[in-house]
Design brief:
five-stranded parallel sheet; single chain; alpha/beta; Arc Repressor Mutant, subunit A; two-stranded antiparallel ribbon; Rossmann fold
Length: 348
């Protein structure tokens, strides 16, 4: 693989055992070679061979829709339709008719019968993105669909049999929503037969150079620009960010830099200034790896990345009195990720 100049020293040759998985992920636009993203993909691949409902949990921008698409097309329903619906993008008053359809004359403006998403997904998969935004009243109707495998259009009397696999996604902790009585516990168990957690970008920093390469090549083709190089200091800086918007935010930064550069090289001048004042560089969180400073358009690096990470982990552990869960929360990473990093740096 020919990498964009400047990235060579940041991307290690993957173990041969990983190559097949990496290539298969790339077919679905899932980019990375870290253990965490590969393990998530392998779980999705295994889940795809069943009819069980799946709940995908991850921060905004981690690739939940990509995983839903991959799961469908790797599975036993791949020849059936994949119907997608973002529950947060549609007003509550319209969401029911979008899901179940409606009969002609069901309400003012219903001049014709409309087939709903569940019917359209018959013999296939329906992907309900941001299911945590759904009202309790509508949650009850979704539960009935799962239990009875029957829907009725709004304003209709006919019961329609459906055979649908549900993949749901959320950026919330749905179990906490259950405890707050904002999400039905019975529905939670119905949609969460198989659980997939997607790691935040800050939990798989080793994938950032590979993602940079992928996005540069994508926008070379889409924008018709010519980029041959990215400064190594810029790569180090991008690795150091917290990335609250995850992969989507990284993509936007690369896209911005490619449009703004005056030549064929991405330098610090081309990185959007709001990155340096956003929550990406907040506080003394490990995620900031705060050894990078933009001063007069020059990046100053005080410490090696690993050394900075180790230092910040130690600070968080001491602040949390060596309580793993609290330290992980302070660092903005998953507890399992903290355990792995403590082993890496031999911290006990």
């Amino acid at each position: 693989m020919q990498l964009v100049k400047g990235l060579e020293g940041f991307i290690e040759a993957p173990h041969p055992d990983k190559l097949q998985n990496i290539e298969e992920m790339q077919k679905f636009g899932i980019i990375g070679y870290s253990d965490s993203i590969i393990q998530s993909f392998l779980r999705a691949k295994k889940a795809a061979k069943s009819n069980a409902n799946i709940l995908i949990q991850g921060d905004s921008g981690t690739g939940k829709e990509l995983f839903a698409i991959a799961t469908h097309y790797m599975g036993i329903r791949m020849d059936g339709p994949l119907i997608k619906l973002n529950c947060a993008a549609i007003p509550e008053t319209l969401l029911e008719s979008e899901l179940f359809g409606y009969e002609k004359g069901a309400f003012t403006g219903a001049g014709r019968t409309k087939i709903g998403k569940f019917e359209l997904a018959h013999k296939g998969t329906i992907f309900l993105d941001e299911i945590g935004e759904m009202s309790l009243a509508l949650q009850a109707k979704i539960l009935r669909v799962i239990e009875d495998k029957i829907i009725s259009r709004v304003g209709g009397l006919e019961s329609i049999n459906i055979d649908v696999r549900i993949i749901s996604a959320t950026n919330r902790d749905l179990w906490q929503e259950v405890r707050k009585l904002k999400f039905r516990e019975d529905l939670y168990y119905r949609i969460n037969v198989i659980f997939l957690h997607l790691p935040a970008l800050r939990e798989r920093r080793e994938d950032i150079p590979l993602l940079i390469d992928f996005f540069i090549k994508r926008y070379i083709e889409q924008e018709g620009v010519k980029i041959t190089q990215i400064d190594e200091d810029v790569v180090k800086l991008l690795i150091s960010f917290n990335w609250p918007g995850n992969v989507r935010q990284l993509e936007n930064v690369i896209h911005h830099a490619m449009i703004m550069t005056e030549d064929e090289r991405i330098s610090i001048d081309d990185i959007p200034d709001n990155i340096f004042t956003s929550s990406s560089l907040s506080g003394d969180s490990m995620s900031t790896l705060a050894g990078y400073i933009k001063k007069d358009n020059v990046i100053i690096t005080d410490l090696d990345l690993d050394e900075m990470e180790k230092t910040q982990i130690l600070k968080a552990l001491e602040k949390a009195h060596w309580k793993m869960s609290k330290a992980a929360e302070l660092l903005g990473i998953h507890r399992n990720t903290l355990t792995q990093k403590m082993k890496k740096y031999k911290l006990k």
